[in-house]
Amino acid sequence: MAATPCPLCNGDKTVKCPKCHGGGEINCGKCGGTGFIDGEVCDRCKGTGQQTCFHCDGKGYVTCPRCNGSGED
Ligand SMILES: [Zn+2]
Ligand SMILES: [Zn+2]
Ligand SMILES: [Zn+2]
Description:
Bound molecules: zinc ion
Mean pLDDT: 96
Distance between the termini: 12 Å
Shape: rod-shaped
């Protein structure tokens, strides 16, 4: 029986990160994405309002949860 490509990742073995939607960055959890807290520059994101996505480690993609990285259904 021939292996079928995983329908979720299409055989790519990875899928776009659901947390950052592939951008590799998410809104800073400390300032909520504004870059400031009470008028002060947020020390976690240095005022950018963004931080590296912890879910994908900034890569923008994660191992496919359906095939677990095998690429096959
Ligand atoms: Zn991510
Ligand atoms: Zn921040
Ligand atoms: Zn897959």
